[in-house]
Design a protein that fits this description.
- The structure holds 2 protein chains of 2 kinds.
- Chain A is mostly beta strands.
- Chain A has one domain: Sortase, Chain: A, CATH 2.40.260.10.
- Chain A has 2 helices and 10 strands.
- Chain A has an 8-stranded mixed β-barrel with strand order 1-2-3-4-9-10-8-7. Chain A has a two-stranded antiparallel ribbon with strand order 5-6.
- The radius of gyration of chain A is 17 Å and the shape is globular.
- Chain B is α+β, with helices and mostly antiparallel strands.
- Chain B folds into 2 domains: 125 residues, Macroglobulin (MG2) domain (Immunoglobulin-like, Sandwich), CATH 2.60.40.1930; 32 residues.
- In chain B, a hairpin with a 5-residue loop joins β1 and β2.
- The chains are: A mainly beta, B alpha+beta.
- Chains A and B meet through α1, β4, β5, β6 and α2 of A and α3 of B.
- Chain A: It comes from Actinophytocola algeriensis.
- Chain A: It holds the Pfam family Sortase.
Chain lengths: 193, 204
């Protein structure tokens, strides 16, 4: 009878995890790659973005470093861990002048991703980034847009800015089953509060 | 007979000769400043009275302040206007008591809008017009400012793939909840079936 109870508990736990989208809670993973601009890996001696918190949509995650993939696209966090967000190490760090970029999955393997509700953000919403030295940077959302992947606004996302800014990126739109990919990206633009 | 003297040379002696000092007047050296005599280009007349006029600057550009230097080796000289289409300068004036072989100086300014080229300059000495020339050079193109490095030096290509790994679960607009809910229900059903099967097996 005890075995029956254990089996039921396991099934219920698995179902709960799926329903809450928290199958993989915050992960403190090491940087995924080297910095494409300096060739150096992120070390504990360097102050780097460590965690992101978006209160309005309840999105919280540690941040892993993301570089460039071999095909020149930006790396993304492991899709098997969809609750993990990451920051693009080839861009300025949050709080530095320029466009910092944080990426997160909308889903992964049928589980909700850390940025599943990113499209719900509105102008004025708050985004907090905590650094590895314990300091934090507060950004305010200025706009949210959803664009076809074919028209991804590279210059708008990665182009120079006068002040510290932040971009949050995930997937959105309809799902292309033949391509196993979403057709659009949700991009949130935020400025230093 | 008019003889043209070009004194754009590095030999001070030549310059002094051109100014007709003959005996290398000490006043001439002083008036032009050390080394200055060798710099400017002037045109003069070797016959008495010796005359010359020129500009004592290595490089002459539009809008620049320049030093006009002249010689009129006659005791009669008192003053003269300086005539040039490219510059404006106060009259050349011999100071009271200055010797005839002293250099006449006047600080002038090249017109701001004058294009690069060769321009005449003249004054009057003993009722004769003395003419020289000088060259205005173009302003060098300013060095282009170094372009600051891009804040994102290497921009990623394409659009990020931030979703999927399939399992047919598009997360857009609440669909995810439905699909996840269905998956969870299936798991619960499977669990229930398992429990039922266990019970049945226990009955045998």
């Amino acid at each position: 009878m005890a075995r029956i109870g254990a089996a039921v508990v396991a099934v219920v736990l698995a179902a709960t995890a799926l329903l809450t989208g928290c199958a993989v809670p915050n992960i403190s993973a090491p940087p995924l790659s080297t910095d494409p601009t300096t060739g150096s890996t992120t070390t504990s001696a360097v102050v780097v973005p460590a965690e992101i918190d978006i209160p309005r949509i309840g999105a919280t995650s540690s941040l892993v470093g993301l570089g460039l993939a071999a095909d020149g696209t930006v790396e993304v966090p492991p899709v098997e861990a969809p609750m993990q967000a990451g920051w693009f190490t080839g861009a300025p760090k949050p709080g530095e002048p320029g466009p910092s970029v944080v990426l997160g999955h909308v889903d992964g393997g049928g589980q909700a991703g850390v940025f599943a509700r990113l499209h719900e953000l509105e102008e004025g919403d708050e985004v907090l980034v905590r650094r590895s030295d314990g300091t934090g940077v507060r950004f305010t959302v200025t706009r949210v847009e959803q664009v076809p992947k074919a028209d991804f606004p590279t210059e708008e996302v990665y182009g120079d800015t006068q002040k510290p800014e932040l971009r949050l990126i995930t997937c959105g739109g309809t799902f292309d089953r033949s391509a196993h990919s979403y057709r659009e990206n949700v991009i949130v633009y935020a400025e230093l509060a | 007979m008019k003889v043209r003297f070009v004194l754009a040379c590095a030999v001070a002696g030549l310059a002094l000769t051109a100014f007709g000092a003959g005996s290398a007047s000490a006043e001439g050296d002083t008036a032009l400043g050390e080394g200055a005599v060798a710099r400017f280009q002037t045109y003069g007349q070797a016959e008495e009275p010796y005359t010359a006029i020129g500009i004592d600057d290595d490089v002459i550009k539009a809008g620049q302040e320049v030093r006009v230097a002249a010689s009129c080796q006659t005791e009669e000289f008192v003053s003269s206007k300086i005539i040039s289409p490219a510059l404006i300068a106060p009259d050349l004036v011999r100071e009271k008591g200055a010797p005839a072989n002293s250099v006449l100086m006047s600080m002038g300014r090249i017109h701001a809008e004058v294009p690069a080229g060769i321009y005449p300059i003249s004054f009057t000495c003993a009722d004769r017009e003395v003419t020289g020339q000088f060259t205005v050079v173009a302003d060098e193109e300013p060095e282009p400012r170094a372009r600051p490095a891009a804040q994102v030096p290497v921009k990623p290509k394409g659009a990020p793939e931030t979703g999927s790994l399939d399992q047919a679960a598009p997360a857009e607009d609440g669909n995810l909840g439905i699909v996840v809910g269905a998956g969870a229900a299936a798991l619960l059903v499977a669990g229930g079936v398992g429990v039922q099967a266990y019970r049945k097996r226990g009955q045998f």
